[in-house]
């Protein structure tokens, strides 16, 4: 004899064991179905591995090259020979002290210029200068020098005097000033512009920027010295040279710079077949009513998805382990270089695992959108490639894309994969690789951190799963009870519903010679109340049908073909929703608590609901 509490505990334990048994059966079913297709299983595991082999082969064909240390000779900023056409310097604001500084600057420029034709024009205010630049942009303009407008008038200059240089947007070389970029779009290891002692493009030396900066600085220093000590500086006694910093020896790897562009596509394409095949198999169960039949037999929906997730994850886990081995194992004799030489294999594995989780839940979401397996698998292939489009869109203007836009792109799992791989390649190019200590560090000025990518992949997996569960509840397809779009906000969804008491005798009794009187001493187990079903073509299958089915009795439905017997039973078991009316089974309404109804109800359908690849 059990007390109420002990009986409740036993029910909970029994429920846990039942769920474990159901999960074991589902896993056995999924594994056996997979085992019955050995070629399909092999391709699903091998496809990602084969695409990874492409990277391994590319690694074997491109060997890293070792370079010696680089040293550079000093150079003078005054070696530039300005064009005669560009000889005008405009400046602001007008100030007697600034005028003397600019006069001295022009004198210095003319001393080192072969043409000696530099001149300057001052403006009262920077706005006036800008207006003049826009309205009368002259080909003779060399540069503009803008001091703070607070020095306008007869105002003494401060010791710390700053100036803004504005040069024409076009330069003599083939490049621009590139003021909108902090780092090159495609980073190459080693020295930038190896052959240029002055740093190369955008050519601050050849365009006269450094020369103007030197002479203006000398003039400002000279102004302060004369003000403080009453004498000038002899520039010839202190010549100024500039010299590039030396660069230590390094190893350049052309493969890494190439991988940054296409490695995301390789990994994305490697999972196309697992994606399409998983969607097809899941949608097939839905199309053949197998899933709904299992739910009628008491299968919880969460167990169905959990079993599919575990089966798919185990399949992908085999591929991921092989992929990491290929990416990290030194396959080449005499060298330790791999595809990702410096990256931590554990972090790389975690990255791929999170991506695989998002892939699996993406498959779930797609499978709920369609009732036909062929349509679902076709759409899955197209959608899989579309998830890569955001990363392509921001690739061409990556340096000008905000962090928010990058994070929005990572809501598409393939774009998150591509951007994550881009960061890994950048870390490899600086001989550091992906490590625990740089998960939350910028690489080459990129504000997208690799830790953000890991978080977004986990978020993607959760979002796709929520989409799958919501769509399945609101749009179940041809079979299943449709929930209202707001079902998440209903207390009954979270707290359940109580058993309906109502009228024990069920429907109103009809007393005539064609109807048997209903027993008053029995309780109806099933109460059908004015239930009806009208299909989309306006065909009436069941019209305002009411009936009580009593406990301890066998009730038989008789009728000709098309009378609605199968439709009625399908509505009672939740295969299809009623158009009107309702029914209660054991006190639970079929419209609001089908899960409880199915715990005490089963059905033997008139057509075979069988797994084609399972045998008895």
UniProtKB/TrEMBL annotation:
It is found in: Membrane. GO terms for molecular function: ABC-type transporter activity; ATP binding; ATP hydrolysis activity; lipid transporter activity. The chain crosses the membrane at residues 262-282, 302-326, 346-366, 378-398, 449-471. One of its GO terms (cellular component) is membrane. It is a multi-pass membrane protein. The keyword Transmembrane helix applies. This is Uncharacterized protein. It comes from Photinus pyralis. The lineage of its organism: Eukaryota, Metazoa, Ecdysozoa, Arthropoda, Hexapoda.
